[in-house]
Design brief:
The structure holds two protein chains of two kinds. By secondary structure, chain A is mainly β. Chain A contains no helices and ten strands. Chain A has strands spanning about 5, 10, 20-25, 35-40, 45-50, 60, 70-75, 80-85, 90-100, 110-115. Chain B is mostly beta strands. Chain B is built from no helices and eleven strands. Chain B has strands spanning about 5, 10, 15-25, 35-40, 45-50, 55, 65-70, 70-80, 85-95, 95-100, 105-109. In chain B, the strands form two sheets. In chain B, strands 2, 4, 5, 6, 9, 10 and 11 form a seven-stranded mixed beta sheet that branches. Classes of the chains: A mainly beta, B mainly beta. The interface of A and B includes residues 35, 37, 45, 101 and 103 of A.
């Protein structure tokens, strides 16, 4: 059974940093591209970033470029999102999803940026 | 960054048919945008219904179909059920970046 479990969310002050993790199981993680998607409270889905299967290529939404970094550890079957210089508008539930094609989603982890 | 547009809300009667559309600020939506459709119910993670314009996952109910229509991506629900009431999002690829539409709140009433 494919499972994606996000963790690492929480309350952080503006300007702070946080690292999210997405633990994958039930499939060959190293064969799949992965995405991060976020959803602010009461708002729509927003694509954040994607990484290819070996981690050599990454792409970001303009809103997070230069502040967020996506990475992966295929030996640990884990996807990461390092978030720096956090702003109030980064407050959201962050989901990881499996690609090729996009099918399974995690349940999300909530990040709250507030003083 | 491109803007993807969807109807903010639509209503369909139980058993009825409704089409949701997805447009792009850059012009016509084509198969090269690899359109996706996602369904999200309150308090739940999104669920992927359609990928690459019209392909279904094993869990996608047969009453959902998708295509390109009049320069837009389209999701058609035929024989709506109460459990189809949800938010529906389209998703397009733009040379590396991906963009979601704002979502369509579908009411079955």
């Amino acid at each position: 059974e494919v499972q994606l479990v996000e963790s690492g969310g929480g309350l952080v002050q503006p300007g702070g940093s946080l690292r999210l993790s997405c633990a994958a199981s039930g499939f060959t993680f190293s064969r799949h591209w992965m995405h991060w998607v976020r959803q602010a409270p009461g708002k729509g889905l927003v694509w954040v970033s994607r990484i290819n299967s070996d981690g050599s290529t990454t792409t970001y939404a303009d809103s997070v470029k230069g502040r967020f970094t996506v990475s992966r550890d295929n030996a640990k079957n884990t996807l990461y999102l390092q978030m720096n210089s956090l702003r109030a508008e980064d407050t959201a539930v962050y989901y990881c999803t499996r690609d090729q094609p996009i099918d399974y989603w995690g349940q999300g982890t909530l990040v709250t940026v507030s003083s | 960054q491109a803007v993807v547009t969807q109807e903010p809300s639509l209503t369909v009667s139980p058993g009825g048919t409704v089409t949701l559309t997805c447009g792009s600020s850059t012009g016509a939506v084509t198969s090269g945008h690899y359109p996706y459709w996602f369904q999200q119910k309150p308090g739940q993670a999104p669920r992927t219904l359609i990928y690459d314009t019209s392909n279904k996952h094993s869990w996608t109910p047969a009453r959902f179909s998708a295509s390109l229509l009049g320069g837009k991506a389209a999701l058609t629900l035929s024989g709506a059920l109460p459990e189809d009431e949800a938010e529906y999002y389209c998703f397009l690829y733009y040379s590396g970046a991906r963009v979601f539409g704002g979502g369509t709140k579908l009411t079955v009433l």
